[in-house]
Each structure stands twice: as structure tokens, then as C-alpha cells.
Amino acid sequence: MNVAAELHEQNKTKLPTMDLPSLPESPNSSSYSIVSSEECIYYSETRETSACRRVLQQEDVSLITKLASGRLFNRWMGSLETENNQAKYVVVTSITDEAKQERQFHWNDFVKRVLELPLTEYTIKIEGIYITAGNLYLVQEHIYCKTLETYQTSNRKYVHSKEGTTPLYESEAMRLIMNILKGMEFIQSYGFLHPGLSTRKILLENQGTCKLYDFCLVADATSKVMCIKSQMDCSLNDLPLESLLRNEYTHESDVWSIAVVLWKILSSGSSPFGKFQISEIEKSQEVPRTWPEQAARIRNNLLFECWNKVTKLRPTISHLKSTFEEVWKSLPKDVATSQTTSENYVPMVGNVDKETEYSREILNEELMSTALG
Length: 373
What we know:
By secondary structure, this protein is α+β, with helices and mostly antiparallel strands. 34% of the residues lie in helices and 15% in strands. The strands form 3 sheets. It has a 6-stranded mixed β-sheet with strand order 1-5-6-4-3-2. Strands 7-9-10 form a 3-stranded antiparallel β-sheet. Strands 8-11 form a two-stranded antiparallel sheet. Keywords: ATP-binding, Nucleotide-binding, Receptor.
């Protein structure tokens, strides 16, 4: 009996006419190549493939509480019964009825593309999918951790120490920068863009790995931009110039937002741009030219070109990454080789026997900021 027939028999509901996204076939073998410790790869040598993602039964997932209900998505905190009969916390996402009816978002295509992603340290792990009552649900792991914004707020002591700038801070900043650039390069290579990328939309795992979420297909970038603009007063710190003026969003637009995030890392959370009304933005745009003093030894002037009004003149993510790598290699050995794991990292927990109330607080911090409209 095939999967659709089994679901029909168990749920006793009429299945939707849409096609279920297919799970990618597992390759015969796959492994990471040997990398240096400077590259900060936190995975084991054996690469986990997407074949471990499952087509779930509805009864495998228990919805605990609703986290967010926005214009595009509904999200719940839930628990998933694993194959070894244990339970773990997960985040369950579906498209809203409004977005489905108005065809604002290519949800089925998005889920299919996400399932095709190889497992990586840069994105949230996909646990599986399931269908019930005509709705397709995406089930992702939940990680107990801080957002990059929260982490920066609680770690400003590293920047403003009495002794001045320290190798610890420069090493920390460079590690975060390279994590984000590699992650964004990765998702773009699979056909995704990240409108609204910010330090609030980057999770920092227990080993200091940056994880990206809330990205979308290239075809849905404009809809995502319009959603973001409808829910908040946006500035050049939130969206690039072309998005604010014309609702456009391209690969070059991602570069603008990446530069804003990197600037906040380098300047201890300060934003590069002021607040302007939409009507004033084009004439008031002033690209910052003063490099943050505390990060003087890791200066990279190419960052300023990421805010060029002409989108085609902005550097690519790959180019930006390679120039930061050169800056990193030019640093003294005591800086370039120093590694740190902050005491403020919160270890990842995946068992349901922990306090649900604590889980709600962490999940709300991570996900309420992503509720659209």
C-alpha cells in the first residue's frame, strides 16, 4: 500500500489532489572532505543525507502550542515521536488559508526544494512532512539557543573591555562572519533568497554555529518583501533600497542585507543606516564610511560596496567571502588561531522531559519575530 493510501486509511479524510513533494533518493555514499579547524565545521566526517527525512503520519506529531499566526505562515511548537520511540521538540509550519487561496506563496514548491537540501550546519534540520485535511505541514527540529541579536547584547563585554580590542573579539567576529557568508552562499546555490535577513533571524547554536531560517524561493521574494513592509516601518537596515522603493528583491539584495548584519557584528550591534521615511530614503541614503574602531584589524572595504545603489555593482557573496578570508589570513597567528565558545551559549536540548514553559519562552524569542503580518 502506498503512502497516500495509508494516510487515507488512517486519517479517514479525503486527501488533497496536490502531489506530495518527493523525498530525494539517498546517494550510495557521501562524506565531507577533510577541512582545517579554521573553517569551523562542526559536523562529523560522515555526512547525513536527506533520505533520513520522513513522510510522517499525523499521529507521529503532537501539537503543543501555537507560536505564531501571520499573513503567510502558521507555526506550532510540537513533539515528534522518533524511530527509537523517544520524543523531541519540533517546530511545525504550514501556509495560511489566506496565502493559499490568494496564491501568495509557492508552498508546495518551497517544501519540495527544502527537502532536497543536503543536511548542513547552516540551516535548521528538516525532520519530515505530513498531510492532513488537505494541508501540507513541514516539521523542523527545534534548537534551544539564542538569536545572534540576543547573543550580541549579552556579550558586549568582549568588545568594550578596559584593555581595548582583544584577539578574542576579532576571532569571534570573524567566525560569525564566515559562518553567515557560507550559509547564505549555500542557500542561494539551492534557489533561495532571504528577504528580511537580520541578526534576529540568525540562530546561534551551542557550538557557535550560525543557522539560517525563514528564507524563501526566489519566486516568492517579492511577496515576502511586501509582507515585511506591511507589518513594520522599514528602513535601509531592514531591506535594501530597491525593495523599499519598488518591492524588488534579487541575489544582489541579499548582499545588501548581509552587509547590514556583518556591520552589526563588527560594531557591537549598531546599525549602519538611520531611520528615514520612504519618500526620503533615496535622497537621504548615506553609506557609512567609518569602519568600527574595535574591528580595525579586520577591515574590509568591499563591505561598503554592498550598499551600492546600482545592484549589479555590488559584490557577490563568494567575492565578499574570499576577501574576508584574505583578511583573516593576514592577521597575527595569536588572533587567527584563537577559538572561543562563550559561556552564554545554551546547549541544544531535544527531549520532551524538559520544562515546556522554558521551551515556549525560547521558541517565542526565536519565532515570534518571524510572524508575517
